[in-house]
């Protein structure tokens, strides 16, 4: 769905307000299993291109790394995509001549863009797809265009694998993208 709303509410957890003139594309999808979350990543990889910033938000166990694993498969990158929690960032070069995947886990980083600058994401961004888990309030200033995925899961003592994924494309890059078609 494409929308240029006169007043666009922020996605919960998105620390950067969207101006009245910023194009926004938004869709909500249901995912019923980890396999479907990975498949969503593979489908999403088909619309990503070098320079894209993807922010992933969701509580622990929501499926952020599982989705990123699917992105890596869809982009045809080298190396197993695993959580970069302890190394902060991993670069997965393309095996098929496409963009590299830079996978960042900003969970342990407290500061905003200043702390993120040490990772040189601004240097990597133009030729890579940069995926940042826990990036709210930390990486929005890298670019005016970003894709923010907010993953909701059932909480509590449950084996329920259902997730609701809100995809929100912000900026000109995402204005014409039908995110609901993923």
Verbal overview:
- The chain has 182 residues and is α/β, with parallel strands linked by helices.
- The protein is 18% helix and 26% strand.
- The chain is globular and about 40 Å long.
Protein traits:
4 helices, disordered N terminus, 8 strands, alpha/beta, about 180 residues, eight-stranded mixed β-sheet, about 20% helix
Gist?
The protein has 4 helices and 8 strands; from the N terminus they run ββαβαββααβββ. The protein is an alpha/beta fold and 182 residues long.
Write the layout of secondary structure elements.
Blueprint: E1 2-3, E2 24-31, H1 34-45, E3 53-57, H2 64-75, E4 89-92, E5 100-105, H3 113-116, H4 121-124, E6 128-133, E7 146-153, E8 163-170
Parallel strand pairs: 3-6, 3-7, 5-6
Antiparallel strand pairs: 1-2, 2-8, 4-5, 7-8
The portion of residues forming beta strands comes to 25-35%
Largest sheet, order of strands side by side? 1-2-8-7-3-6-5-4
- Biggest pleated-sheet summary: 8 strands, mixed
Average pLDDT across residues? 82
- Which structural class best describes the helix and strand composition? alpha/beta
Can you give the helix content as a percent range?
Answer: 10-25%
* Inertia-based shape: globular
Number of helices: 4
């Amino acid at each position: 769905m494409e929308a240029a709303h006169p007043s666009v509410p922020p996605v919960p957890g998105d620390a950067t307000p969207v101006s009245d003139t910023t194009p926004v594309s938004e869709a909500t999808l249901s995912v019923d299993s980890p396999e479907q979350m990975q498949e969503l990543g593979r489908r999403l990889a088909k619309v990503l291109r070098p320079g894209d910033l993807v922010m992933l938000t969701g509580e622990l166990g929501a499926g952020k790394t599982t989705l990123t694993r699917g992105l890596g498969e869809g982009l045809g990158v080298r190396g197993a995509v695993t959580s970069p929690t302890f190394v902060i960032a991993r670069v997965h070069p393309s095996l098929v001549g496409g963009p590299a995947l830079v996978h960042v886990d900003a969970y342990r980083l407290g500061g905003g863009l200043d702390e993120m600058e040490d990772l040189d994401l601004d240097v990597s961004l133009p030729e890579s797809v940069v995926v940042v888990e826990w990036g709210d309030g930390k990486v929005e200033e890298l670019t005016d265009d970003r894709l923010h995925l907010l993953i909701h899961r059932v909480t509590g003592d449950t084996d329920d694998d259902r997730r609701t994924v809100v995809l929100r494309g912000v900026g000109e890059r995402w204005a014409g993208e039908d995110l609901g078609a993923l």
